[in-house]
Amino acid sequence: MTPPTIDSHKEDLVIHADETLTITCRGQRTLSWVWPETTLVGEDLTDRQAGPRPSRAPEGEAETGSQVGTPGAGVVGDHPVAGEEAGTPASVPVQRRGVGILECPGEPGRPYCKTLVLTGAKGNDTGYYRCYYRDIKAVVDGTTAATLYVFVRDLEQPFLRRNRGSNGDLETIFITRSSTHITVPCLVTVPDLNVTLYLWETIPMLLEDEGMVWDSKRGWSIPRQTLDSRPFLIGIYCQATRQGRHYRSSLYLVQSTGSQVYDFKLYPEDSVELFMEEALTLNCTATVEFNTLVEFQWSYPGKQMNNTVGIVHKRNSLSRFTEAVSILTIQSVNVTDTGTYTCSAISMDKKMDLATQVIVYEKPFISLDYRSGPVIEATLGQKSFKLLVNVSAYPRPDIQWYKGDKLISRRPEFNRMRLHQHYNLEIRDVHPEDAGNYTVLLKNTASLLERRLTITLIVNVPPQIHEKEIATPSNPYSRGSRQTLTCTGYGLPAPNITWQWRAWSPCGLNSTQRLEDKHPHL
């Protein structure tokens, strides 16, 4: 298996705000796309829904931004973009913002193809666009996925502000005791922007220090000791100046946090079975060091389309540690909610995943079948033998085993028999009288469901020779006399009897002669 490929020869590309971005990915398996702006929900498009298809640049002229509206075409882009001071090119009409996914023609060796179309792009659409194999759980760039970084050049919003919460322009950078560098994530929509870093103590102060590194896709990286040496630091922010206008990023507060995760559990621990319209509740709990930051993420069937899922996060401070809890709830489940539910707990140092299976049934049912066929065999004296059946049922039915027409219970005659949790019947110290017909009966009285199955048990008895048990020392017989030797054998199935005779002479025993006969007399 080779990784999917994006038809761009660049590691990143630049488009203008309000343009349409089109990226095509091909691979050997079924493909899916993810994009940086999670509030945008993708929709499947047909060719007719793909929107207008602007003409290509004349031959010999470079195209600016991305190929617009042509499914299956490669992505092209110049870096930097021509005409940057003019803002959005006049030739590109403003379009409704949205993400569409198109099927496109494959090619030899890569039969699967998906095209992502982003219309009306904004600065917040800047980031990584990832194409990956949908049916493989591990998403690894270069193995099962391919990525492309896209700058949506928005001169009115040069700093990327995707997650603006109730605190407005205030964000927090969490660092652990082991952190050697701090990343200030003042991401930009304009890749060639000249960005400076300021410390906010009593007054803003330009920070210029050895070891600082700027990356337009990550922000500023600062050595830890640079900030540790400033005890009165309030916060950090980035600033850029363009055509006499000053732009400022969010103000970042720096907070030390723990990193220890002591335990991680998903409840219920076993798989969950429900009927339609019942409620599902899953509890994901991480036991952590007091001020350890934990981010929970859930994946479940139909995540992008399922709006019936509720997720609540809580923190409980206990005497020696903190419980970070995430609770997923669906008040009324449907059959489409069947599948794998995965809770991911992400701390500063690690990511942990736990998963459980949820199965939703339309109505009660019982399925009963043989495990080893209708006739099975045991051996006399066998320490333990189990009569096994295959059962699939919900809810769990009542179970009864019968030997013949007698219910197997705790009566003394059945003291060697034991019913196990998985509907199986165990017989200990197998006796000949254990042979016979056994019937398993499954009942769901409330739903008027009943299933039964009969198994025939044969008890094999190893061959035994009666005369061997009562043998007496050999007596001499007269030469020439007629004698009758008797061998009485017993066993199930009936044994074959074989006679062996060794002639005697004064010099010793001669060779053995063998005679097989079903008759016990010789």
Automatic annotation (TrEMBL):
Annotated Pfam families: I-set, ig, Ig_VEGFR-1-like_5th, VEGFR-1-like_Ig-like
Residue ranges of every copy of the Ig-like domain listed in the record: 278-353, 364-456, 463-499
Name of the featured protein: Platelet-derived growth factor receptor-like protein
Keyword terms: Immunoglobulin domain
Xref: Gene3D superfamilies: Immunoglobulins
Lineage, uppermost ranks: Eukaryota, Metazoa, Chordata, Craniata, Vertebrata
Gene this chain is encoded by: LOC120048906
Segments for region (Disordered): 43-89
UniProt keyword Coiled coil present: no
Subunit structure and binding partners: Forms a complex composed of PDGFRL, TNK2 and GRB2.
